[in-house]
Recover the amino acids of this structure.
């Protein structure tokens, strides 16, 4: 087996391996936590360099997905809050959380529209940055932080991470075409960078859960189960909506793959800290689904190659 064959064979298992490594080495992961934004920045730069700006289009498909994300999150919170605000918050954040900044990477590997997903990721993150302070003021806002400060805190963490690599990709395209072409041709690196970022995120999530008191374990289990339910639903609803617009993969990844790093931070900052179990569990659920999709995609590609041979 040569290197190329080995990479193809191991690719479907990279995400589960990354999650397992995060669990095993969770005690030491905090030393690497500072690398997360740099990994995401690099992944986005690779992805955006592949995109033609002329293909950017904010159409009805994107607005429908955004409406499902925002209105769905509020509706679920209202439905669950009478029974338990903590569970409601943990479920809410798993829906309200914006699309993962690395979602275009997985979308491209699955055969979806990278341009569409990159556009939706940008719109989704900006919308959350603008709406989060208002919504958090009703469901669990930290009174020690002013409205303006909260807006700036969220915006400072979200917008530069997305807009800076996009601006850099556009500058490279306009003024350094050779550099742009070199970066655009290295798309396979995004997947392995995402696996590294996943190790860090999972490790941090496991460390938090382990340090929670045993009395809250039943509540954490319920939040994790609710997280699984909304994860499956979002992938399914996104696929259904995407089918209407000829792109099931982008629809599913747009709604289903979440920026869990941001979600965990928002939970710990603005909501009851126990609600962070929702996005922490979501890390596992969404990557199990992504791993299964990548496995099936890889298997189908191999079958297609054999048939055409």
């Amino acid at each position: 087996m040569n290197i190329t064959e080995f990479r193809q064979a191991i690719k479907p298992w990279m995400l589960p391996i990354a999650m397992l490594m995060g669990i095993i080495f969770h005690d030491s992961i905090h030393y690497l936590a500072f690398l997360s934004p740099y990994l995401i920045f690099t992944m986005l730069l690779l992805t955006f360099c592949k995109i033609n700006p002329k293909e950017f289009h904010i159409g009805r498909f994107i607005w429908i997905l955004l409406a499902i994300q925002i209105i769905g999150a509020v509706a679920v919170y209202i439905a669950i809050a009478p029974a338990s605000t903590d569970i409601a918050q943990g479920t809410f954040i798993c829906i309200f959380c914006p699309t993962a900044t690395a979602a275009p990477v997985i979308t491209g590997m699955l055969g979806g529209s990278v341009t569409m997903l990159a556009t939706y990721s940008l719109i989704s993150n900006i919308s959350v940055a603008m709406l989060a302070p208002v919504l958090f003021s009703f469901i669990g806002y930290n009174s020690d932080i002013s409205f303006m400060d909260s807006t700036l805190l969220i915006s400072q963490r979200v917008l530069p991470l997305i807009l800076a690599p996009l601006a850099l990709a556009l500058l490279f395209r306009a003024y350094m075409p050779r550099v742009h072409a070199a970066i655009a041709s290295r798309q396979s690196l995004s997947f392995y960078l995402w696996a590294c970022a996943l190790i860090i995120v999972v490790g941090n999530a496991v460390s938090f859960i382990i340090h929670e008191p045993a009395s809250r374990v039943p509540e954490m289990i319920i939040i994790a189960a609710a997280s699984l339910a909304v994860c499956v639903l979002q992938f399914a609803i996104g696929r259904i909506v995407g089918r209407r617009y000829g792109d099931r993969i982008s629809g599913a990844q747009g709604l289903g793959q979440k920026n869990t790093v941001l979600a965990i931070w928002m939970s710990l900052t603005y909501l009851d800290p126990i609600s962070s179990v929702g996005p922490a569990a979501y890390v596992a659920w969404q990557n199990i689904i992504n791993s299964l999709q990548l496995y099936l995609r890889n298997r189908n590609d191999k079958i297609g190659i054999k048939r055409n041979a």
Notes: DSSP finds 15 helices and no strands in the chain. The mean pLDDT is 82.
